[in-house]
Amino acid sequence: MKTHFLRPREVPELQIWAEVFIFTALALGLPVLFNAEDPFWTQGGFSWPVLGPLLVALRYGFSKGFISILVLLVGQLLLLQANVLASQSEFNINAMIGYIIVIMITGEFRDVWERTNQQQSIQLEYVSDRLETFTRQYHLISSSHDRIEQMLAGHTLSLRESLQAVRTSIGKLKERRLDSAADVIINLFLEYGALEKAGLYKVEKNKILESPLAVIGKMNPPVTSDPLVIAMFEEKELVSVKDSKASLGISNYHIAIPLIDVNDNIYAAILVEKIQFFALKDNTLTLLAVMAGHIGDLLRHEITNPVMNIEETPYFTQQVKRANKEAKRYNIASHLLKIKANKISEESRQLMDYLTEARRGLDVYLYDNEKQTLLLLMPMTDELEKSGFIARVDSWSKERTGKNLAELEIIIEQQMALPISNDNIKRLVALS
Question: What is the pTM of this model?
Fold first, then answer.
């Protein structure tokens, strides 16, 4: 319950003036009733009538107290002039001036106290607001941190792992059509992208078809005029609200992801209306973009055999172009190696068979059995990993045949870090 006596700032102005009038009237009238012989209390040692204006000054400040004491003194003079008071009553002007000064000092003290109190209240309100904001943000970050820990505890967000999952999941499908693969695709993005509301839509002639093939959560109809969607078709790559090219207007989506092959053909688009905020960071966006590109290639090409023969050269070329594009766009380290046996022997065949068996999950091989030439595409492999791979092959050769690569006349004819030019890709893939 609010108590006006303890909080004078909340008292209505009409009530303030009523209280000023009442206290002043009591200070003027009570002495006349109870001490008519000496209403000014000049003989009693203390002028009790001044107590009314004093209370007014303490409660409402200088101006109200000053008005109250003046009204009291004027009222006493009028009563004296009207012969209401005894003629022997003495009006001590010096005492009255002193009372006025006391009331003025009291009122000023109250005003200073009130200003100080207001300033401290404002500071307290500001600090309380900041503390509340900090507390909310702390709990939000703490909760998000716990969720991240729970998520990462059972699932390491790995680009290599996600692409391996993409190949495995798409490869298991009986038919590599978009409509039959839609649920598998959206579930992969749900697992690795922390999506909360998203839809997979078919794209024809750079236009999104309204009916979704698969959804996460309840999606609204697609907005083809959305700035994020327009930017996706223009850039032919993943676009998020963080990108400057998508800042032409307010978007309904957080991310727009095209399922696009290496030739920039868009087969479908994933429009994300809601994503967990901690997932909207660069490494997650890169992962989603690379996943989308690989899915686009897998939808276009039926071949998924990672060890290809000479007849499958066009598909291997597409894989190299995909890795080259990712190295250019996202700075993902990849290497292309050309291993050739200058002297074909049983030992060299054993080594080539070993390379096929020891192939890492994402590596793609193009093997010419007659010429004993092997092209190795090593996506997401830096210089150290490439050197380690060559060292392991050389060590295996020494252990199994008693000869290292040089002694078997098997050479690493080319080893290139992507990105490289298209001419170099054509020259290497020719296996000449």
Answer: 0.58
